[in-house]
Amino acid sequence: MQHSSLFRMKLKAKRLLTAPDCDQPVMQLTLVPLDGESLHSFGHGQCLRIGVPHTRKPAPAYFAIASSPEDTEGYDLVIKETKGLAHYLCHMNVDETVEVDGPMGKGFEIARLQGRNVILVGVGTGVAPLRSVWRSIVRNRNDFGSVSIHAGFLSQIHRLLDDETKDLLEHDIDVHTTLTHKHDGWEGPIGYVQHSLEDLAPSVENTVVCLAGMTAMVEGCTEILKKLGFSDDQILLNF
User: Fold this and answer.
1) Which CATH number among 3.10.560.10, 1.10.10.10, 3.40.50.300, 3.40.50.80 corresponds to the domain 110-237?
2) What pLDDT, on a 0 to 100 scale, did the predictor assign at position 1?
3) pLDDT tens-digit map of 197-236
4) What is the DSSP letter of 41?
5) Pick from 177, 16, 12, 23: which is nearest to 98 by CA?
6) CA nearest neighbour of 99 among 230, 200, 7, 201
């Protein structure tokens, strides 16, 4: 599933995922092949290297694919509107094109999750590659044991994909959200997602964990999981 030749794609749709007053807007973008072309196959948690045609400014950058391999129409991306290419992509118009290389990267091997309990852990836009996994789990729910998602965000207005994660309860998938900053009316955990994970102390037996997000978070979660008795082969990264 590794592709290396550059190709073009166009923007089909985009939507704002964060609250309108959020100081760090995050957009969901859908890129589709140009007319007559087919979507390159990909694995869960893989990424794309995206650039602007005919120029190196802003510089190309890497973004995780947020759709699942069964979503054959296009690639979904979850992008924080910061600077550089991320800012450019978030302000693209529908039907504008970008230059794409990939899909690439190790990703998550879904076969290693089948028949086991699955824990997905991510913060911020790190939920993108996890979304690729949970969408496949929903389609094949009987192939997996218990499934839970642990997501961390700065505050209520920074939360992502709430509309989708609420529906996951119908598929017997538990969703645990942690906020860094306390808010009136918020009764969930406050702090970092790894601390929430430690408090919940999930069972090690027949369980595998997928981590996605900032290096500090991945390292913190790995440390907690090992304290809980998880081995290296039970902790999966997509890079």
Assistant:
1) 3.40.50.80
2) 53
3) 898 999 999 999 999 988 999 999 999 999 999 999 999 9
4) P
5) 12
6) 7
